[in-house]
Amino acid sequence: MATATADREQWGSRIGFVLAAAGSAIGLGNIWRFPYITGENGGAAFVVLYLLCIAFICLPYLFAELALGRNSQKNPVGAIAAIKARTPWMLVGALCVLTGVFILSYYGVVAGWAFGYIFKGLVAPATDAGTYFASFIADPWTVIPLMGFFMLFTISIVASGVEQGIERASKVLMPILLVLILVVIFRSVTLPGAGAGLEFYLNPDFSKVDGGVVLAALGQAFFSLSLGMGAMITYGSYLPKSENLLVSGGYVALFDTAIALLAGLMIFPAVFAMGQNPSEGPALVFVILPEVFGAMPLGSFVGAVFFTLLSIAALTSTVSLLEVVVSYFVDETSWSRKKSAWLVGGFTFLVGVPSALSQGGSDFFTNQLQLFGQTGFLNIMDYIWGNVSLALGALLLSIFVSWVWGADAAVRELQQGADGFTGMAVAVWRFFVKYVCPLFIAAILVGKVLGTI
Domains of the chain (ranges plus CATH)? Predict the structure, then answer.
């Protein structure tokens, strides 16, 4: 079994790890994607399926990634090399690192949009929301500086270290995020007509459920926890052997799921109260919600608060994406953390420029560039790295942990600091991680390749 190096960084506390790991999972996927996917798939029935997928598929897999990371005390490449050095399995770790770079390159663009929208109520309060959004994302002199600002903030946090940078920032940002969410929820549920939104969100109608809804719930649950790209391997590698992985991982899943559910309480009551359609897709946050905010009392303030919390959620995710790659260079090369963070961050910014230009800033990157049935650079990147690569990495990691490293070895790692993990609990976890998780992750991969989810 691999052991930690003497000078390897570690989390300063359990709460620090939980907030940082939950922050990694809580991002645009929870506050932007979860509500519109829920709206497109019938509301409360989708939410019930989502919760079942979190409990029975995602949580066992999350424990597997954390165990692999703590066992090796390394990044995804080093974690696999510690078990199967100089084998093709190391390419799975490399895939995780590449996935982190390329997802961050376009994720930072959307994060910049969220940050820019904090000020929409001041600069364009009466502008049609759809018209404003189209012109906003098509202006390279706006979106590229916003992406650059977000990357600078991300780099500065990661460069400061695990405890002094990522953990310290998470302890400040996550409580602020929760308070801001509660502020928006209070305003949303007190609007006249909000009850229809609560009914849609909280009262399941299972007649709306079909195979597509099940796959959508599975895909959203899995990727909402930042699984499949090595983030939890990396964050798990900074945990001491005395830490109870089951308790810590359980808190991460609980916190992440709670934020996603609260996001629905923010959005659906307001959308229904203002007579809008909850199944508007990705436009729900950047087009429909600004219209909703503009029509309600104190709407400019509520809109600024909402996009502030969306920016914070995005930041905690961009930090984890960058950390996966920085951890690789710190572990495997002679580069310092600061050098790794600035060089990787700078490279990622340059790779992200075509995505920033692909919403109207360049006709080539917007309309002429087509691949895999996708049009536009950002859409192509999201399909390759945010869909197919992420699902493929998760499938290969689940097979590696359960069949190559071995479920028994993973169990021994999980049992360190968790004395009660014995008997039936071990048997159930072993069954799920060896058979159920790979099967369902394979279904996600097929769905992503075929474009059905």
Answer: 14-450 (1.10.4160)
